[in-house]
Amino acid sequence: MADEEKLPIPPTFLEKVLFYTTATFVLLAIFSLFAFLFLVPFVIEPAFTTIFMQFDPVAALCVTAQVKHLVGVSNCTWASCREGCTKDLYECTQIRVNYKLGYAPNITATEYENLIRVERSLRKDYDYENYGSPLENNYPDMEEIPEPIPTGLMGNDSEWYFTGARLFPNVKGCGYPPILNCTIFYGKYKPLGTNYSCYYSRVDPGLVITELDMWQNTLNLVYAMAIPIPSFIISVIYLTFAYFKIYNTEEESEQAPLQSDAEAMATGDDGKPTTPGSDTFREDLACFGHQLKMQLANEKPKEGFESNSPPISNSASLSG
């Protein structure tokens, strides 16, 4: 009679819950990690840079003073606007502006004039070497030197607080549609003499942006860090606990009967360990050999014995 096939044991409700919970945390850890890596260059790093550059929340008055359209990687060290933050620049448009500080809503005109004089004074903790006169630069590849505009902080007798500042839509100067459209940006700020509000950096006065929303910037930073990082940490903690506690306990319970059988086979009836030189091992081996011989003898058919015996003829029996 053939042995009946053993049917697989269906998983219990707790086993199903454990399986789907583990799978959920594995997927959560993977998606959280990739989401964080994606948000670092596009949200987290620009948000931190915006905070560290300390943009003045009071808008300044900017006027487009110079526009350059350049071609070549060596010439395009920066661009006022570019769609895509990772591609190389082979053609760029650079916009420089002059700006003067705007009026704060909570101060008087006299206080504002004093504030301008203090802000315009030279700062001891800032390096002004980057804003030298463009006349000091050499242009060996150009036959005619373009007439430069003065760049840097102006004195108290000047109308402008800073001239020749670089204009960007945001602190990185790049983005992706539909949030940033460089065609619209250049159409609005490229014409010479255009007046508009802008925000300058207290750390680098030569950096000016057209849009500033510190509340939205902080909110994006919180969302980008508060969702993927805790999700990844919680997933890793659960998976570590499940691996060392839950699944390890199940494996030990499944291996317990096998281990007890192996221990019983390794010891004799007297509880002593069975070795090839022990009396128990010799007795077991002799008993096994005797049982094997008896089994082979019983399975051998009787026809085999009759076919192997010599035939006895009737004539031989009669003559005898």
Protein model, in words:
- One of its GO terms (biological process) is regulation of sodium ion transport.
- One of its GO terms (molecular function) is sodium channel regulator activity.
- InterPro entries: TipE.
- 13% of the residues are buried.
- Among the domains are: 12-54 and 212-243; 56-104 and 150-204, no CATH class.
- With 320 residues, it is an alpha+beta fold.
- The protein is rod-shaped.
- Helices cover 46% and strands 14% of the residues.
- The chain has a five-stranded mixed beta barrel with strand order 1-3-5-8-7. A two-stranded parallel sheet has the order 2-6.
- Helix 1 (13-52) runs antiparallel to helix 4 and helix 1 packs antiparallel against helix 5 (228-266).
- The chain starts with 12 loop residues before the first helix and ends with a helix.
